[in-house]
Design a protein that fits this description.
The protein is an alpha/beta fold. Among the domains are: about 40 residues, no CATH class; about 100 residues, Dna Topoisomerase Vi A Subunit, Chain: A, domain 2, CATH 3.40.1360. It is about 45% helix and about 10% strand. It contains 8 helices and 6 strands, in the order αααββαβαβαβαβα. α1 packs across α2. The chain is globular and about 65 Å long. About 15% of the residues are buried.
Length: about 200
């Protein structure tokens, strides 16, 4: 007697949900079953996903998400400093920096970071468009706001070499102690970076 399982369409949806970042098999199963408990939950989700595919895409210049047939508010704003670009890994990083209110320049979304183990090479990232923008806009400084993990450091090092060969000033975000944190909650790498990046007061 075959083991009892969900119908194939349900299994396929669980497999798709499970492939999303941060969701395991049990979370995916709970989510799909919750959607099916009330027939009114599936249709709005389908409409929203269809709307997303039809109306949203990445800006050709910066890589942040915009609605089709509209100008990018980041690239077209006359209030933004045109001579400085902040390079980030993902579009969500743009929002994090914008919410801080500390940066008024332009952004460039790479779409990931170099990772030989995952077969992510420079050709897979938006590096060529970055170099083109730097030349076209006569950029003076590029801030590398990529992660401090191994892949992020490799990406920063690669970009640093490319951009410096163009005669640009390249900087990285400061790394180290979190605001409000004490030494007892900081790992050795963070403490090392905090000491290396110290400044005079």
């Amino acid at each position: 007697m075959p083991a009892l399982d969900y119908p194939p369409p349900l299994q396929r949806l669980i497999a798709q949900i499970k492939s999303l970042p941060g969701l395991g098999p049990r979370s995916a199963e709970r989510l799909v079953l919750w959607l099916l408990q009330d027939g009114g939950r599936v249709e709005p989700l389908m409409d929203a996903l269809g709307d997303l595919v039809a109306r949203v895409h990445a800006c050709d210049q910066c890589g942040f998400f915009i609605e089709k047939e509209t100008d990018c508010a980041l690239c077209q704003s006359p209030k933004r400093q045109q001579k400085i670009i902040c390079v980030v890994e993902q579009a969500a990083d743009v929002l994090r920096l914008e919410r801080s209110g500390a940066f008024q320049g332009l952004y460039h979304v790479l779409g990931g970071k170099l990772s030989p183990l995952d077969n992510v090479t420079p050709d897979d990232l938006r590096i060529e468009p970055l170099l083109a923008r730097v030349k076209t806009l006569h950029v003076e400084e590029v801030i590398l706001a990529v992660g401090s993990d191994v892949e992020g450091e490799a990406t920063a090092s690669y970009l640093n070499d490319l951009l410096r060969s163009e005669g640009l000033t390249v900087s990285r975000l400061a790394q180290g102690m979190p605001a409000g944190g004490g030494l007892d909650h900081v790992d050795e790498l963070t403490l090392y970076q905090a000491l290396q990046g110290r400044r005079k007061v």
